[in-house]
Each structure stands twice: as structure tokens, then as C-alpha cells.
Amino acid sequence: MELEKMIIENQIQLEDIPQIDLYMDQVIQLFENKFGSSKRNEEEKVLTKTMINNYAKGKLLFPVKNKKYSKEHLILIAMIYQLKGALSITDIKTTLSGVNERTAEENFGIDRFYQLYLDLTAQNLETFKKDLKNQTDRVKVEAEALEETESADLEKVLMVSSLAHMSNLYRKAAERLVDELAEG
Predict the structure, then answer these.
(1) Which PANTHER family match (predicted)?
(2) What pLDDT does residue 2 have?
(3) Where are the domains of the chain?
(4) What is the DSSP letter of 41?
(5) Which of 6, 82, 132, 150 sits at 20 to 30 Å (Cα–Cα) from 107?
């Protein structure tokens, strides 16, 4: 299985973010350029005007000035983009509310915070690659135990099921932490 080669880990790095404020269309283009290669199909949208407007209306972002998005807005949108794959919009709002408040008050180094996040994601990717290799090897052994002559599809079903289970475990752990943020 060449699953590892299919995993594309894209992040917007701090140096990818312009030092000038951007209009919505420019924000969408930046995200499309960075994350377009990781789309599952051509119809999928990375980011749309509606999404950005919903993030603003839902107060996932601090208010925009003069219809332009600052570097801080782009960092928050990048985090929202990554979080929405696992969490509900309500959970994302809860998770990022403190970061939003601190950033809006201009007494928070969101650049440093985001770089720490990027460092963690790079470490996560390396851990994931090793775990994926181990999981692939275990699934192969289990599939061979079925003694089916055509076990390739069954091996893939086992792998999908196993990865989905791991994803659910991580999502549930994240949701528990969100609940703690909401309580505290």
C-alpha cells in the first residue's frame, strides 16, 4: 500500500502570509494555491466567500477592518481550515475564542503561537508516517490470516476501518478538551 504517498500535509507557513492586508478574493486565492493540491476532487472548494462570511458572522474571527484581512486573520483562517476537518464550528469557536480575544486586544503574539502549532503539526506528521507504516504492516498480517486468495480489497477495508477508528479516538479526545475549555 502506498498510502503514505497519498498523504499531503500542507500548512500555510508564516512566510507564506503577506505583510499587507488582503481582500477576500486574495485570501481565497492564497488558500487555493496552498491547499488546492490536497483536495479530494475538483469540485471541492478549499475556501469560499460564504465560508469566510460565516466564520466572521459566527465570531470565529475578530472583526475585519475595511473589508481587508490582516496577517492575524489569515492565521486564524488557516487554523479554522485545519480544525474543521475534525471539529464542529461551535467547537472551533470555543477552541479559538481566547486566541481571538487576545489577538483583537493586540497583546498576544499570534505569530509565535502559530509557529508552535506548525512545529507540532510537523512532529505529528512524522509520528503519523511511522504509525501508518506499523498499521499497514499489522493490517497486512491480519488480512493474510483470512486466507482469501483475493484479500487486497479486504485489506483496504480493514485499513479504512482502523484509520477511521483512530480518527474517532483522536476527535473524541479533542472534543473532551474543547469541553474543558468551555467549562473553564
Answers:
(1) DUF1836 DOMAIN-CONTAINING PROTEIN, HYPOTHETICAL CYTOSOLIC PROTEIN
(2) 55
(3) 3-112, 120-183
(4) S
(5) 82
Q: Which pLDDT score, from 0 to 100, does residue 3 have?
A: 56
Instruction: Tell which residue, 38, 85, 81, has the closest CA to residue 60.
Output: 81
* Long-range contacts formed by 111-116: CB under 8 A, 24+ apart: 111/14, 111/71, 111/75, 114/14, 114/75, 114/78, 114/79, 115/14
Q: Give Cα separations from 60 to 45, 51, 95, 162 (angstroms).
A: 19, 11, 9, 32
Show the CA angle centred on residue 143, arms to residues 171 and 128, nearest 5°: 35
Q: Judging by beta carbons within 10 Å of its beta carbon (0-12, 13-18, 19+), is residue 128 exposed, middle or buried?
A: middle
In terms of phi and psi (left: phi > 0; alpha: psi -120 to 50; beta: otherwise), the region of 64 is beta
Q: What is the mean pLDDT of each run of 10 residues along the chain (184 residues)?
A: 58 93 96 85 90 93 93 96 94 95 89 96 91 91 76 86 94 96 91
Strand partners, 23: 68
Neighbouring-strand partners of residue 69: 22
Residue 125 near residue 87, CB atoms below 8 Å? no
